[in-house]
Structures are given as structure tokens and as C-alpha cells.
């Protein structure tokens, strides 16, 4: 198997009261408030975008036409327990116009395709709900 680089994201982050995050291509330029809840929002947005692409790929592989674009509401929560920090995630997925059993198959398959799902597997609690 030959590995092929598809994309490299480059960001510059500055902390403190006037913290910010900027991508080298200019598509991301946001202020980072203290104590940085933006990190969970950014992670949720990035994961959701990737996950939607994975759902679309899973549908294409199965020759399933999606009547509407998939939608994901991500909830990334930060927890503390005795000085240790950890994340939990909930992905609420909407696949309008798709039978429930087919939709469940697609969202399950997407976790095997999406690099964010692969990276978090076994590392954080993830709940996926079809809404």
C-alpha cells in the first residue's frame, strides 16, 4: 500500500487573554476566550465535517442516494476527575429521507471511515444518535 498525503492543516495559536487561532490558509481566524471553550467547539466542528464526508462516502460505496445532506450536531464535553481531564462526545446525526435501518448502517460505517472517529476510538466515550 502506498500512502498518499491528502492535506496538511497548519495553525498558529497564541494563548492568554488575547489568544487567537489562525490557519495558514486564512480559513480560520478566531479569538480564543479563557479558559478556551473554543477548543471543544473547534474539535466538534472538525470531527462533524469529517464525519459527514464519511457518511457520504459510505452511502456512495453502497450506491445509496442521499436525498438531503447529512447533518451533525456535535457535543464535546470537557470533564475533570481528581485533577485528570478527559473528553466525552455525542454526535447527533440527521439523515433526512433515509430509512432508519439504512441510516444506522451508514452512521456505523462512517465511524470506520472518518479519521477523527478512528483517532478517538477507545480514547474517549462517544455516543452516536440518529435523530
TrEMBL record:
InterPro entries: KH_dom-like_a/b, OHR, OsmC/Ohr_fam, OsmC/Ohrsf. Gene3D superfamilies: 2.20.25.10, 3.30.300.20. GO terms for biological process: response to oxidative stress. Signal peptide: none annotated. NCBIfam families: organ_hyd_perox. Belongs to the OsmC/Ohr family. This is Ohr family peroxiredoxin. It comes from Rhizobium vallis. The lineage of its organism: Bacteria, Pseudomonadati, Pseudomonadota, Alphaproteobacteria, Hyphomicrobiales.
Amino acid at each position: 500500500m502506498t500512502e498518499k498525503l491528502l492535506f496538511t492543516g497548519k495553525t498558529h495559536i497564541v494563548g492568554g487573554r488575547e489568544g487567537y487561532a489562525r490557519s495558514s490558509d486564512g480559513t480560520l481566524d478566531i479569538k480564543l476566550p479563557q479558559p478556551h471553550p473554543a477548543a471543544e467547539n473547534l474539535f466538534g466542528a472538525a470531527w462533524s465535517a469529517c464525519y459527514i464526508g464519511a457518511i457520504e462516502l459510505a452511502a456512495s460505496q453502497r450506491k445509496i442516494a442521499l436525498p438531503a445532506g447529512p447533518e451533525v450536531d456535535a457535543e464535546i464535553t470537557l470533564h475533570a476527575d481528581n485533577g485528570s481531564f478527559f473528553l466525552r462526545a455525542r454526535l447527533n446525526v440527521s439523515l433526512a429521507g433515509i430509512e432508519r435501518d439504512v441510516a444506522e448502517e451508514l452512521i456505523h460505517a462512517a465511524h470506520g471511515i472518518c479519521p477523527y472517529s478512528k483517532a478517538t476510538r477507545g480514547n474517549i466515550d462517544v455516543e452516536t444518535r440518529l435523530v
